[in-house]
Amino acid sequence: MKKWKLDRIFTLITVGSSLITVILVLKKPQPVSQPMPAAIAAAKAESFQEKLGQFTQPKQPGQPAPELRLTSDEVAAALAQAAGEVPATPVQINGTTVNMTPSSADAAVAPGQPEVKDYQVNFDGDVARGQFLVKIAGRDVWVTLAGHLGSKDGYATFDPTEFKLGDMNVPISLISEAFQKKLTEQRDRLKLPDNVDTMKVENGELVLTQK
Asked: Burial letters for 77-108: b for 16+ Cβ neighbours within 10 Å, e otherwise?
């Protein structure tokens, strides 16, 4: 009888733990950023385009390497613009009108990978944080990923420091190896533009320097 009671208690604990895990995974976490009004998003997207246009100008002899600094709001607005949620704003480069709209985040998803339905970005100090709504096993789940963005040998790098499924923290040690393996498999997608020398997040901004 005593053994039966212990087995039943362990079973209840296991079932309860599993239920809590499922609830946390499906629960929407605190957002990493707040949605912007349409007018502000349009202004931020235009600022992104203008800065990008200036950054693509050739470096003048004797001048220090140009630097591009983008806030998380500007990057978020550019992503929204790429998704068609914010009208594209062309810029002037060497007298030529060019639409500098970046590719949609969904376009970077390889076949067989989870569909990204929504996303948010935030830069805090030297940490880049993204939050994505993806479909996993037929259910919509929020994935939060944070870490240090950098560059090496002409390719972007990312060292994760935080990973969450829904509102459940997942130890980095459990996903780090698989995450870096996935980055290696998709290394071609991480190649920086030819005119970019370094990339990092610093003081809450995405910073790129030109070669």
From this structure: bbbbbbbeebeebebeeeeeeeebbeeebeee
Nearest to 189 by CA among 145, 164, 158, 147: 158
Say if residues 175 and 165 touch (Cβ distance below 8 Å).
no
Of 78-92, 110-124, 126-140, give the range with the top mean pLDDT: 126-140
- Can you name the residues that pair with 191 across neighbouring β-strands? 155
Of the pLDDT bands very low, low, confident and very high (cuts 50, 70, 90), residue 172 is very high
**Consecutive H or E run containing 68:** strand 67-71
% of the chain surpassing 90 pLDDT: 35
Q: Dihedral through CA 132, CA 39, CA 205, CA 179, nearest 10? A: 10
Judge whether 76 and 33 are in contact, CB under 8 Å.
yes
- In whole angstroms, how far apart are CA 16 and each of 22, 27, 170? 10, 16, 19
DSSP for 134-197, written as a single string: EEETTEEEEEEEEEEEEEETTEEEEEEEEEEETTEE--HHHHHHHHHHHHHHTGGGGBPPTTEE
What's the DSSP call for residue 89?
-
Element at 112 (helix H, strand E): none
Which one, of 103, 131, 129, lies nearest residue 117 by Cα?
A: 131
What's the predicted TM-score (pTM) here? 0.75
Task: Say how far apart CA 4 and CA 211 lie, in whole Å.
Answer: 71
